[in-house]
């Protein structure tokens, strides 16, 4: 089973796995309330997957 997006692609955007998990879980909670996805036609039907797709697309990030 392949996970999309891959952890390698996500870690190119956000280096820390802890930060990646925290950011995606917070965004998934927001998506469950608002259903306002920032990517067109997400592949995932689950909110965490949608949040990870947003990170991969560069729409969701952590400011330095």
Automatic annotation (TrEMBL):
It catalyses: RNA(n) + a ribonucleoside 5'-triphosphate = RNA(n+1) + diphosphate. Signal peptide: none annotated. Its EC number is 2.7.7.6. Pfam families: RNA_pol_Rpb6. The keyword Transferase applies. Coiled coil: none annotated. Keywords: DNA-directed RNA polymerase, Nucleotidyltransferase, Transcription, Transferase. GO terms for molecular function: DNA-directed RNA polymerase activity. One of its GO terms (cellular component) is DNA-directed RNA polymerase complex. The keyword Nucleotidyltransferase applies. InterPro entries: DNA-dir_RNA_pol_omega, Pol_omega/Rpo6/RPB6, RPB6/omega-like_sf. The RNAP catalytic core consists of 2 alpha, 1 beta, 1 beta' and 1 omega subunit. When a sigma factor is associated with the core the holoenzyme is formed, which can initiate transcription. Promotes RNA polymerase assembly. Latches the N- and C-terminal regions of the beta' subunit thereby facilitating its interaction with the beta and alpha subunits. Belongs to the RNA polymerase subunit omega family. This is DNA-directed RNA polymerase subunit omega. It comes from Oceanobacillus longus.
């Amino acid at each position: 089973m392949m996970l999309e997006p891959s952890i390698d692609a996500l870690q190119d955007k956000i280096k820390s796995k802890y930060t990646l998990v925290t950011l995606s879980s917070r965004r998934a909670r927001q998506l469950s309330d608002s259903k306002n996805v920032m990517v067109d036609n997400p592949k995932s039907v689950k909110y965490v997957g949608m949040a990870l797709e947003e990170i991969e697309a560069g729409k969701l990030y952590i400011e330095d």
